[in-house]
Design brief:
By secondary structure, the chain is α/β, with parallel strands linked by helices. The protein has a single domain, classed as 4-Layer Sandwich (Purple Acid Phosphatase, chain A, domain 2). The chain contains 8 helices and 13 strands. The strands form 4 sheets. A 6-stranded mixed beta sheet has the order 4-5-6-7-9-8, covered by helices on one side. Helix 1 packs parallel to helix 2.
Length: 255
């Protein structure tokens, strides 16, 4: 299950929706959950601690993987608590080869410095991380920022683009990342964008590029069924019984 942009600290209502999602995921016995950044709203330790309490059942059973987002770099900079300061790391679980990528900019100082960054060293580390996956494992790259251009989600983003501010743009090295992943990975899962979108890039080994949207606002995450290193039946949405129907109909964009 792919969740993203939880924004603990943005309001008790959103946090309650996230808690309901987690309860249902535990009840469904989902084998693994990935969270692609913006765990917190202001990057505060107290916000991250509430996230940890809610996700504790998944963390204790080693069914949780988390990477940082740009919001996690604010305030107390809790990004270090997700990947320990590493820019690229590999996690192996039964049937999964997960390549974790920190695409955030350290110490952004201002919330509007939200665009990501990938350097030569990051891409070289991703290349190495894709070199030796376990046989019959689904290979997934996890990062926060979108590697391909996506439509603006607000008039502020559109205005920023007009005046040359980069915060709404895709990763500058996103195309390089996708070239590195082509033929070697199955999924690139990201966050940052609050409306869910996705695409399959063609090839001998198709590559899916998906974001989960703002999971608590939408009331759902992306579910992937996999077997023997391959996606079965394509990605599907799963919505909890607690989902806010108006928010879904108003904000969700079919992928």
């Amino acid at each position: 299950m792919h969740l993203s942009d939880l924004h603990f600290g943005a309001g008790a209502r959103l946090e309650a929706r996230t808690a309901a999602l987690v309860e249902d995921l535990v009840a469904r016995d989902v084998d693994h959950v990935v969270v692609t950044g913006d765990v917190t709203e202001h990057g505060r330790h107290a916000e991250f601690e509430r996230f940890c309490r809610v996700f504790e059942p998944l963390a204790l059973s080693r069914r949780l993987t988390v990477i940082p987002g740009n919001h996690d770099r604010l305030g107390d900079d809790v990004a270090e608590l997700t990947m320990g300061g590493e820019r690229v790391r590999v996690e192996r679980r039964d049937g999964l080869h997960l390549v974790l990528v920190d695409s955030t900019r350290p110490n952004p100082a201002f919330a509007f410095v939200a665009h990501g960054h990938l350097g030569d060293a990051d891409l070289a580390a991703v290349d190495a991380a894709l070199a030796s996956p376990d046989p019959d494992s689904l290979v997934c790259i996890l990062l926060h920022h979108h590697p391909t251009a996506l439509p603006h989600e607000s008039w502020l983003e559109a205005l920023g683009e007009r005046v040359g501010l980069p915060f709404g743009r895709a990763l500058e090295r996103g195309a390089d990342l996708l070239r590195c992943a082509a033929g070697r990975a199955d999924l690139v899962l990201h966050g940052h964008r609050h409306r869910p979108r996705g695409v399959w890039l063609p090839g001998a080994r198709p590559l899916g590029v998906f974001n989960a949207g703002c999971s608590p606002s939408l009331g759902h995450g992306r579910e992937f069924v996999h077997r023997d290193g391959a996606i079965v039946g394509g990605p599907s949405r799963w919505a909890s019984s607690e989902r806010p129907r108006r928010a879904v109909s108003r904000r969700a964009v079919p992928a």
